[in-house]
Write a structure and sequence with these properties.
The chain has about 350 residues and is α/β, with parallel strands linked by helices. It is built from twelve helices and eleven strands. It folds into two domains: about 45-145 and about 275-325, D-Maltodextrin-Binding Protein, domain 2, CATH 3.40.190.10; about 145-270, D-Maltodextrin-Binding Protein, domain 2, CATH 3.40.190. Helices cover about 35% and strands about 15% of the residues. Strands 1, 2, 3, 4, 5, 6, 7, 8, 9, 10 and 11 form an eleven-stranded mixed β-sheet that branches.
Length: about 350
């Protein structure tokens, strides 16, 4: 199993490296120090959340939950999203905590099949989250977001070249040497984009598509920050490439001061939808506290906090989104899809084939 270095080892959206890091530190400060041994809960007044590096929640939202529940939340962050699942599997006989947040749909079935989760359907789960359900209640959908190619509007306007729209467009000669993406063996956005191409071209066609991208000068880097903040010409990037793999929410952070336009955009015909889940860990020391924490993650208070802190869409579609998201951070109307079971069955072989095709 490859350890996938997810967007959390490098910020997944513009600003998340700082915000996510601050949020994680704030959570640790509010929650106290995790036991350095196993990281498991020490008593029934403590619930331990195992999550990825960039989990973030507002101090006041967390404090209210702790006050109302009588629980103290401690955090264990064993690494990025891929490392998270690997660690849960390796420690399933002595779990790292009580609750997990951050398993996404590219790893969900592995976690379920390995038996690291205990079934639980939380109180207050929104009807809109049901479409993302996996595993008969073992995993609860918390947030969603689209991985998409982003475009630097100003670069294309200056160059007098029309912006690409589709995946096929990216292979055309006029876009030679303009695209930077991340490696699916080291980046969760990279894995999502690989899955987008599998969904678009099928088992018999996706490798040929990547061969065309390679011939057209696609650049591959290890992580999101390298692609978006170094090689990308848009946003805060100072690079030479006006097309970069990022998220559909990224353009919300390049909006003009008057709020009327954004200097970047997401190509919504190139997207793969990620869903992040939470669940009660099998063998949790505090299973009742774990259920209360999962209830909190689907509550209106936490769901309303998701967009500003983790730059994802809440799974509860009734939650009011930040101003400008509808215009500048829309989800794709038709993202490419790959069934979770197919991802589980073929993920490693797809990454290996991609590496052979693109890296050599």
């Amino acid at each position: 199993m490859n350890t996938i270095s997810t967007r959390r080892s490098t910020p997944r959206r513009l600003g998340l490296g700082l915000v996510g890091g601050i949020g994680a530190l704030a959570l640790a400060a509010c929650a106290g120090t995790t036991d350095a041994g196993s990281g498991t809960a020490s008593d029934q007044d403590t619930v331990t959340l195992v999550t990825h590096d960039s989990f973030a929640v507002s101090d006041d939202v967390l404090a209210t939950f702790e006050a109302e529940s009588g629980l103290t939340v401690k955090q264990v962050a064993p690494g990025d999203g891929g490392a998270l699942v690997n660690q849960l599997v390796l420690t399933k006989d002595s779990p790292l905590g009580d609750v997990v947040f951050g398993i996404d749909n590219s790893f969900a079935t592995r976690a379920i099949d390995e038996g690291v989760l205990a079934p639980y359907t939380p109180e207050g789960l929104a009807d809109s989250a049901a479409q993302y359900a996996i595993g008969d209640g073992a995993l609860t959908p918390i947030d969603v977001g689209d991985v998409c190619v982003n475009v630097d509007h100003a670069w294309f306007a200056s160059a007098g070249i029309p912006e690409p729209v589709t995946l096929d467009d990216l292979t055309k000669p006029e876009y030679e040497d303009l695209l930077v993406v991340t490696n699916p063996a080291t980046s969760s956005p990279g894995l999502s984009f690989l899955l987008a191409t599998v969904g678009a071209y099928g088992e018999d066609g996706w490798e040929g598509y990547w061969a065309k991208l390679k011939d057209n000068g696609v650049k591959v880097v290890d992580g999101w920050s390298d692609a978006y903040s170094v090689d990308f010409s848009g946003g805060e990037g100072k690079g030479a490439r006006p097309l970069a793999l990022s998220y559909s929410t990224s353009p919300a952070f390049t909006v003009s001061e008057d709020g009327t336009s954004t200097s970047t955009g997401a190509l919504l015909d190139t997207c793969f939808r990620q869903v992040e889940y939470a669940g009660v860990l099998a063998g949790a020391e505090n299973p009742e506290g774990a259920k209360k924490l999962v209830d909190f993650l689907v509550s209106d208070a936490f769901q309303a906090d998701v967009a500003d802190n983790m730059y994802m869409y809440p799974a509860n579609s009734d939650i009011t989104l930040p101003e400008g998201w509808a215009q500048f951070a829309p989800l794709s109307p038709e993202p490419f899809e790959v069934a979770p079971a197919d991802i589980t069955a073929h993920r490693d072989e797809w990454i290996k084939a991609w590496t052979s095709t693109v890296i050599g």
